[in-house]
Amino acid sequence: MGEVLGKVLVVDDDEVIRQLIAVNLNLEGFEVETATDGQDCLDRVREVRPDVITLDVMMPCLDGWTTAEKLRTDEDTSHIRVVLITARAQDDDRRRGLGIGVDAYLTKPFDPAELIQVVRDLAARP
């Protein structure tokens, strides 16, 4: 087995999308853990210690916006790269994500190859 490129926490309430992202990243050489919503992400992030988090926006319990804000304001998690993946494609939504400090913003439906490249680039950053 090849070198692990990094660890990714995939957060999405849709099991099919969560598994699609996880399988694609795993096949590319990433170690992948999953979470079902924002609260699950926050509960697991210290245990998983990911390099990158892919984060859906529209989720029950705790949405992606709030989750990203909590990750950014906590000194233990503020360094983790965050990719928002959402059906919300309006310019206001993109600005909101970038204002929170996310590292990348992809819209659904997304191109798996583009997602892999974005995660590769973020995981490789010092």
Quick tags:
single chain, 126 residues, alpha/beta, five-stranded parallel beta sheet, 20% strand
Care to describe what's here?
The chain is an alpha/beta fold and 126 residues long. The protein contains five helices and five strands. It has helices at residues 15-27, 38-48, 64-73, 91-100, 112-124; strands at residues 7-11, 31-35, 52-56, 81-86, 104-107. Helix 1 (15-27) links the parallel strand 1 and strand 2 (31-35). Helix 2 packs parallel to helix 3 (64-73). The protein is globular and about 40 Å long. The model has no long low-confidence stretch (mean pLDDT 92).
Topology:
Elements: E1 7-11, H1 15-27, E2 31-35, H2 38-48, E3 52-56, H3 64-73, E4 81-86, H4 91-100, E5 104-107, H5 112-124
Parallel strand pairs: 1-2, 1-3, 3-4, 4-5
What's this entry about, in short?
With 126 residues, the protein is of the alpha/beta class.
The fraction of residues assigned to DSSP E strands is 15-25%
Q: Which geometry do the CA atoms define?
A: globular
Low-confidence region ranges: none
Order of helix and strand elements from N to C terminus: EHEHEHEHEH
Helix percentage range: 40-55%
Q: Radius of gyration over alpha carbons? A: 13 Å
Indicate the mean pLDDT.
92
Assembly of the depicted chains? single chain
N- and C-termini, Cα separation: 24 Å
Number of strands: 5
Q: Report the sheet with the most strands, covering strand number, pairing sense and barrel closure.
A: 5 strands, parallel
